[in-house]
Fold this protein.
Amino acid sequence: MSVAGRVSQRLTGRVTRLRPGRRGSQRRRSAEDERFAERFAQQWAALRSERRAEEPVSIGAGESNYAPARVPFGVDLAAAWSWRLLLVAAAGYVLARGIAMFAVIVLPIVIALLLSALVIPVVELLTRLRLPRGLSSLLVVVGSLAVVSLLLTFAGQQIAQGANDLSKQVVTGLEQIRVWLRTGPLHVSDSQLNAYIASAQDAVTSSNQQIVTRLTEVGTAVGHIVAGFFIVLFGSYFFLSDGRRIWSWVVRIFPRAARERADSSGRIAWTSLTAFVRATVLVAFTDALGIMVGAAILKVPFVFAIGVLVFIGAFIPLIGATLSGSVAVLVALVAQGPLVALLMLLVVVFVQQLEAHVLQPFLLGRLVSVHPLGVILAIGCGVLVAGIPGALVAVPFVAAANAVVLHLADSAKAAREAQDLPVGDPPG
């Protein structure tokens, strides 16, 4: 029987026993009511205790049914590296897209930085001579601009003076090629030659729309070059005069805990960049001088202009001197014939081998500490990403990054060694 049934049965029996009684005195009734209330309270307490005994409530803790997934350590490590590499690649892609969007500004700033690394010793020398740094920077920028303008002026005058003779030699060379095509092993007839020439003329005259498009692109490129020229000028001046303050502002962008390492890394990168630019200028001068001497001995025209072109092209390591030296080979072919062109090609190859096996290992290898394979890969990646400007910037970027990585690794090693020293022992 349930608890409620038992309580109902006991109360019903009590009421049944009280019904047939007669009225007693008020005092007796009160005493009976008190005894009834007391017994009722006792019975209710007993029923509650019985109920608790019959229906115990217990909350016990057992073993968890959660079991983490068991992944092999190699898979876990590969997954950790993979998602981090994906994040780094995504960040690099976003950064590259941003740089490409502002390439008209970024590339002149990079060129100004390279030029500043080249001429900063002159500014330091003028500063030690009691000249204000701003005035020293202005004099160096104006002087550098004057030197470059003078070189280009001399090269342009030489090209202008020899243009008529070269054009006559080009006409003569084309006529010799035409005679060789008719009398040589190909036996091309005059009608076939005329047909080829006519088709070439038709191809040129029928592409007027493409010519207009190209002219528009050239006009836009000229505008970008003019804007970039002024950015290079102003950027070089401010890098030379206020470089320390600019770098201090950049360092303050980093978190406080990383500012010391950021400052030291930036100074190491600047030292590596300065060494790279100086070594590159020396290599470029050697390449230009060697090809100029060979061209002068072979009596190839435009010797000075060829030297200036080789000097500029040699700033692209390993392949710049060869590409710019091919112009000397073409000029020799037009002006002096195939034999002189072959000799000029040998001169260019010799200079390129001298650069690759002597100048690059002894200068760039020791000053910058970049392996030739790293240089080649950097140039290839730079060409794929940004063309010739990318090839120009890739090697100094890799050199600076390599110097920073080595510096941070040495700093971390020194910090670990300092922590492992016994207490009281001086470092070193």
